[in-house]
Design a protein that fits this description.
It comes from Cucumis sativus (Cucumber). This is DNA binding protein. It contains eleven helices and no strands. The chain is mostly helical. It has one domain.
Length: 220
Amino acid sequence: MMEFSISDPTLWREALSTYSSQIEALGKPNLVSLDDFYRNELPLILHKRNPSPYITTSELSKLMQWKLTRGKWRPRLLDFVSSLDESLVKLASQKAFQCLPDISKAVSELTPLKGVGPATASAVLAAYAPDVAPFMSDEAMEAALGNSKDYSLKQYLLFANKLEQKAKELSLEGEIFTPSDVERALWSRAIGEKLKGSKSQLDPNNGGKTGTKRKRKTSK
């Protein structure tokens, strides 16, 4: 895991540059295309909906597929989100985007939607405003706060604040980092180390051991 205290922008940029290759290395079905949708297509779609941007139920469902495929798969969350009423999703997301840069209010507008917790809400906000609201990934939470088991709004606000401060610190030397850049760098480094660990545990010279599964946590 990347030490959150590291202040060398070059090291952070190197970690961030491996993001796409780590997405591919996970070898999960559709993750490459889902990630392209989430990072490249969806932000453009949202910003074209002026003067009052919103997300649709189908887009939210695809965002949830991305989130669960990149992280831990929880099919019930996808079922909940996919069955949400279109008008409710549109209204909640319009209000949420209008609340920014107040992340607390923005998250609170989205979480009444069934299946949408602070982590999913953060993914919606990060797609629209990556410079304000980072995605609440387990890997980045562990690196920044030492805990990835608390998915409350309070914990997300602590997380977002730490990533915002780190982004400002790293941007002092001319490089521009957003809180979302910091999240992806932390995720990339954590996944890279995890994949290396899996390979070494499967090495015949290491007794052919396999890794242990992480503990399951409630929906987020």
